[in-house]
Every structure is written in structure tokens, then in C-alpha cells.
Write a structure and sequence with these properties.
Layout (H helix, E strand, L loop, with lengths): L7 E10 L4 E6 L12 E4 L2 E8 L3 E6 L1 H6 L10 E6 L18 E10 L4 E6 L13 E4 L2 E9 L2 E6 L1 H5 L11 E6 L1 H10 L12 H6 L4
Antiparallel strand pairs: 1-2, 1-6, 2-5, 3-4, 3-6, 4-5, 7-8, 7-12, 8-11, 9-10, 9-12, 10-11
Length: 215
């Protein structure tokens, strides 16, 4: 479990295809001071397990599922990645609850630099928009952000200079793919209410919510 508060940015040292998935080596500095085999590391929003480490890098194994769902399918040597170690019981929850399980990839469609912050707009698949709400939490490449605007399948986040300059957001170009994790609370509520494909015995339906002014 993670918070979406990026600790540092690392650099992909190598990414090598395997018969099933790929082997990813990331160079970094700060988080290596407290790292062990088997630790969970959030790499660009994806929860990964450390299989090896040295004084300057750590290694994780990417499954075929991870490659299919995330933007690691196009990762290459020299790319920058956001890094965060797993949440501990004495850590402040400065962002929001993040599982590191990516829902989809989005695409950066515009960047607007204003006097005190940046407006970044992303396009996501239509089926994911039900989890994206105004003022709700969303994770982009492992960064906890707040949705400032939603229009159809496009949403906007307002990013302060500190976040922009200390994460991989500063390297994004128009059309670049980003890893998206929507708010996990929305998915649990959907499951409990029986509103998704995994049918439950709940008596609350979408029609009920509409009739009573909830949606």
C-alpha cells in the first residue's frame, strides 16, 4: 500500500524481455538506504517486488499482465520513473490510499503553465470515467492528485510547481502514456452495491440511486 507521495525519481537502467514478462533495473539513490529483497516499491504507480539490489539500483520482474495493462510495455533505457516505498504504520498518509494496481493507461493531451501551478489534461477509456469525480483522488504514474475538472473521458489535474518539478510529470510530452489508478474506495462501493459485472445480492440498483437523487 502506498500514499502517492513520490520519494524520488529514478532512471531505467535496463529493461530486458523474458519468455514471460520482462526484467527491469532502476537506478536511484535515496530509497536504496532502506531496501530489502521482497520489499514492495511503487514504480510509476505500479506495485513491484524487489528481487535484487545493488548500491545504485534495484531489480523487479514485470509479468505479462503488467506489461499489458501499464505503460511499461513501451519502457526503455533512460526513462524516468517515480518511486515510493510501501507505507508503514508510522508514516503520514499525505496523499490517499493507493494499491499500486493499475486500472488503465491515459494519454496526456495538454499542458498549461499558469502563474502558480500547471493544468494537465488526460484522456482515459470511457469505461473508467465512472470512477473519476470532481475533487476526487486519482493516481497518475504513482502521484496522488486531485481531479479539478471532468468532461466526458477527459479530466484535468492542477499541479503545484513542487510536484511538477520533483516527479516525472516534468518530462511528459503530449501523447505520452501514463499509468492510472482510480480511487479504490469507489470500486469497493460499486462492488458492495452490486452495480458492476460482479453481481452481488445487494438491493440497491442504479435506478434506485437515480430515483432518490443520489446520481
Amino acid at each position: 500500500m502506498f500514499t502517492g507521495i513520490v520519494e524520488e525519481t529514478g532512471t531505467i537502467k535496463s529493461v530486458n524481455a523474458l519468455s514471460n514478462g520482462a526484467k527491469l533495473v532502476v537506478e536511484c539513490k535515496m530509497i536504496l538506504s532502506d531496501i530489502n529483497i521482497g520489499d514492495s516499491i511503487c514504480v510509476n504507480g505500479v506495485c513491484q517486488t524487489v528481487t535484487e539490489y545493488t548500491a545504485s539500483s534495484f531489480t523487479v520482474m514485470l509479468s505479462d499482465e503488467t506489461l499489458n495493462i501499464t505503460n511499461f510495455s513501451s519502457a526503455k533505457q533512460g526513462d524516468y520513473v517515480n518511486l515510493e516505498r510501501a507505507l508503514t504504520l508510522n508514516t503520514r498518509l499525505g496523499g490517499h490510499i493507493i494499491s499500486g494496481h493499475i486500472d488503465c493507461t491515459g494519454k496526456l493531451i495538454s499542458t498549461e503553465k499558469l502563474s502558480n501551478f500547471y493544468n494537465l489534461r488526460f484522456e482515459i477509456p470511457f469505461e473508467m470515467t465512472k470512477y473519476v469525480v470532481y475533487k476526487g483522488s486519482i493516481t497518475i504514474n504513482g502521484i496522488s492528485l486531485t481531479v479539478a475538472e471532468v468532461q466526458n473521458n477527459i479530466f484535468t489535474v492542477a499541479v503545484i510547481p513542487h510536484t511538477y518539478q520533483n516527479t516525472v510529470l516534468r518530462y511528459l510530452r503530449l501523447g505520452d502514456s501514463v499509468n492510472i489508478e482510480t480511487d479504490i474506495l469507489a470500486k469497493y462501493v460499486e462492488k458492495l452495491l452490486g452495480l458492476n459485472d460482479n453481481k452481488t445480492n445487494g438491493n440497491i440498483s442504479m435506478e434506485f440511486l437515480k430515483e432518490n437523487g443520489f446520481v
